[in-house]
Amino acid sequence: MKAYVYGAEGARISDVAQPKPKGTQVLVKVRACGLNRADTGMRKGHAHGAAGGAGTVLGMEWAGEVAELGPDAKGLKVGDRIMGSGGAAFAEYTLADHGRVFRAPSNMNFEEAATLPVALATMHNAVVTVGGVQPGRAVLIQGASSGVGLMAMQIAKLKGAKLVIGSSTDPYRRGRLKDYGADLAVDSSDPNWVEEVLKATGGEGVDLIVDQVSGKVANQNLAATKILGRIVNVGRLGGTHADFNFDLHAARRISYIGVTFRTRSIEEVRTIFEEVRKDIWGAVESRKLQLPIDKVYAFDDIDKAFEHMEANKHLGKIVVTV
């Protein structure tokens, strides 16, 4: 089968053996894939958790049809339209755990379905389960113009947040954030953004920051979070190391929590997917929660899709059809 593989000469489309499902795995006939930031690093040979390196089939988000079931896979049958996340997505066939998939709603095509699994699982966990968003609260999403950022704002609004603030350093994308739930859009590269947030919250700061930037905005986040507020760190687009004001952190008594899928067990991931199904799936099926598709590429043009992502001018998801 065709797959996009990282090798000694970089990433390229290659012929590899079709996988066989074991245990609770299902074999998926992939129809479309969503690109994610982590894919760009793996395409250059970087590890993502335990995955990566020479011989790795790249990709982590897909939509398609069940082609075959492992002996212990439950709740699915051959032919079911599904979407999910996991390794080796950029291929004609991929494997997925039976608990790490969603049924693709009948009112979505495969391209649309491929935009959702990572954003739904990541941001429901960050905003609701870990972030503890409540009706009437104020929420700031750092890096809001990414696909997962756009979903985070929508989930916060769905759960009743009174004020949703999104950040983006790009003027065009910042101007579009209000289309996806933002009441206020700020530029996190502007030294005055904290003052904007404090003004919007009556001087108190936000109850919750979901931070995909970290690094250079870490101390500003502390200043923009209210006393006894919460910061959930889901990424490091702004760098992995930075100065941190421990005194401000202590003075404001902020809960600072890191989350990632890289160190979660499959049992933990199954629980996250089940929480999405129980809590917000009706909003997915009604299309209240959805993501824009910036551009769709054919599988043979996957390198062009990555060039488009690395240009960093897109809004929403970049999709590759298989």
Per DSSP, the total helix count is 10
Based on secondary structure, the structural category is: alpha/beta
Mean pLDDT: 95
Q: Could you name the ranges where pLDDT drops below 50 across 5 or more consecutive residues?
A: none
| Global morphology | globular
**What is the percentage of strand-forming residues?**
25-35%
Largest sheet: 7 strands, mixed
Distance separating the two termini: 11 Å
Amount of helix? 25-40%
Radius of gyration in whole Å, from Cα? 20 Å
Total strands: the figure is 16
Can you give a write-up of this model?
This protein has helices spanning 37-43, 110-113, 117-130, 147-158, 171-176, 193-200, 218-224, 246-251, 266-285, 302-311; strands at residues 2-7, 10-15, 25-34, 56-57, 61-69, 81-85, 93-97, 101-103, 138-142, 163-167, 184-186, 206-211, 225-233, 255-258, 293-298, 317-321. With 322 residues, the chain is an alpha/beta fold. Strands 3, 5, 6, 7, 8, 15 and 16 form a seven-stranded mixed beta sheet that branches. A six-stranded parallel beta sheet has the order 11-10-9-12-13-14, with helices on both faces. It has a three-stranded antiparallel beta sheet with strand order 2-1-4, with no helix packed on it. Strand 10, helix 5 and strand 11 (184-186) form a beta-alpha-beta unit. Helix 3 (117-130) crosses helix 9 (266-285) and helix 6 packs parallel to helix 7.
